[in-house]
Design goal:
CATH architecture of the largest domain: 3-Layer(aba) Sandwich
GO molecular function, one term: S-adenosylmethionine-dependent methyltransferase activity
Oligomer: single chain
Pfam family, one: CheR
Number of domains: 2
Protein name: Protein-glutamate O-methyltransferase CheR
Largest sheet: 7 strands, mixed
CATH class of the largest domain: Alpha Beta
Order of helices and strands: HHHHHEHEHEHEEHEEHEEE
CATH superfamily of the largest domain: Vaccinia Virus protein VP39
Helix content: 40-55%
InterPro entries: Bact_Chemotaxis_MeTrfase, CheR_C, CheR_MeTrfase, SAM-dependent_MTases_sf
Length: about 280
């Protein structure tokens, strides 16, 4: 992967970024990272050489680049069949627990976090939940904390997903959980949800975990698909270490656990369960 005009390669860009910041994207998949770097170059009208120079001389620009290359799309109840499984098959298992530890890794702007909170509330489990949500993007974390989404682009799809999860005739009112203001073009999460989540900026790849907790549920959907196989294995191993035995990891619909780590989980529907053991209902 080389910039035709300057001869500088994407790998040289990644090395410069690693040297000048805490971020290491060297184990992201080539296709995903190259497309995003190309877009940064186009948006800023820079050659690769100029981009690398800016990285080495402008720390504020480094943050702008990181935000640009870590943007991921998300939505409320994305892949409704996954959330149906979580609602009907997975979450009822926690009815006898006194506390449920949950981590959303790579939470983006929070739609997945609030999707799960709706299900937890519907099953009267939300008060038991201790919820952490992390993402590398500062902007994503700040937007997630606000819990406000665009109405015009999202309402029809979000409401359709919502009804698909619960069933057309059984779904609670969408507006029980989200305040919709078409005039202001906003969908706002109800205030009582906002203070329930501990949002933390965190880089899965190169930063130590910001907590010592082990978890009953870890969500990391549509994140590791952007990593190369080696990094995927490292991240899955880390998730395995953070899960209680018998607890569950939920990945994206097109993500799988392969290689040696596959022997440490059993798969049921979209859920990977850490094998071997018993979890005390503390």
């Amino acid at each position: 992967m080389q910039d035709r005009e300057s001869g500088w390669t994407y790998r040289e860009f990644l090395q410069a970024l690693k040297e000048c910041s805490p971020y290491d994207f060297s184990e992201y998949s080539d296709n995903s990272i190259s497309r995003r770097i190309q877009k940064v170059m186009q948006d800023n009208n820079l050659t690769m050489e100029e981009l690398i120079y800016r990285i080495r001389t402008n720390t504020q620009f480094v943050e702008q680049v990181v935000e640009a290359i870590t943007v991921n799309t998300t939505e409320l109840f994305r892949d409704p069949e996954v959330w149906q499984y979580i609602l009907h098959k997975l979450l009822p298992h926690f009815s006898s627990y006194k506390k449920i530890n949950i981590w959303h890794a790579g939470c983006s702007t929070g739609q997945e976090v609030y999707s799960l909170m709706v299900l937890l509330d519907h099953l009267n489990l939300l008060d038991k939940a201790d919820i952490y949500a992390t993402d590398i993007s500062r902007n994503a974390i700040e937007n997630a904390k606000k819990g406000v989404f665009r109405y015009s682009f999202n309402y029809i799809n979000y409401n359709r997903n919502f009804k698909a999860v619960f069933g057309e005739n059984d779904a609670p009112d969408f507006r029980k959980y989200f305040t919709c203001n078409e005039g202001k073009d906003t969908i706002s999460v109800v205030p009582e949800f906002l203070n329930k989540v501990k949002y933390i900026r965190h880089d899965l790849v190169s930063t130590k975990l910001p907590f010592y907790n082990r978890f009953d549920l870890i969500f990391c959907r549509n994140v590791i698909i952007y990593f190369n196989p080696s990094l995927q294995s490292k991240i899955i191993q880390m998730f395995h270490n953070q899960l209680f035995p018998g607890s569950s990891l939920i990945l994206g619909s097109h993500e799988t656990i392969s290689g040696f780590m596959n022997t440490k989980f059993t798969k049921n529907g979209p859920v990977y369960t850490r094998t071997n053991a018993f979890h005390f209902k503390y």
